[in-house]
Amino acid sequence: LKVDAEEHLEAKRLSAQEELLKKEEEALVAKEAKVETERLEEEQIGRKEQEQQLAEAKERLAEEERRAEELRLEAEEAKRREAERIEAERLETERLEAEEEERLEAKRLSTELLKKEEEALVAKEAKLEAERLEEEQ
Predict the structure, then answer these.
(1) Lower CB count within 10 Å: N or C terminus of the chain?
(2) Residues 65 and 82: beta-carbon distance below 8 Å
């Protein structure tokens, strides 16, 4: 049970890491768009078409930067939630293991008590048998 839970937790952790890498890749795409915008600014010689392209690139850049920040925040939140879920699963596993240990200990004590009661009965029967034999003599 514990190994399965740990394997499950490891798979979830890897999934969260993959999601974070994907979002980081999108942030790199946004950075590349920023570099492209800067290049357009340097090449600008005042023509209307280039000014329009620059304005559009800046607009895309701003949108991509906003989106990259949103994705970064989402990834952080997903990572936090995953860590909380993993911790909750770990605690639940520990609780279940403790309950199983308590159940086994209770069973052991119950068995021990039954053995002692059986020994007491055997001793009582022996005593009664001894008393009966004594009375017969």
Answers:
(1) C
(2) no
Amino acid identity at 129: E
pLDDT in tens, 68-102: 999 999 999 999 999 999 999 999 999 999 999 99
**For the whole prediction, is pTM greater than 0.85?**
no
Task: Say what angle helices 48-136 and 2-43 make with each other, to 10 degrees.
Answer: 170
Place of tokens 């970064």: 72
Q: How far apart are CA 64 and CA 59, in angstroms?
A: 9
Whole-angstrom Cα distance, residue 101 to residue 95? 10
Contact 29, 65 (CB under 8 A): no
- N- to C-terminal Cα distance for the chain? 65
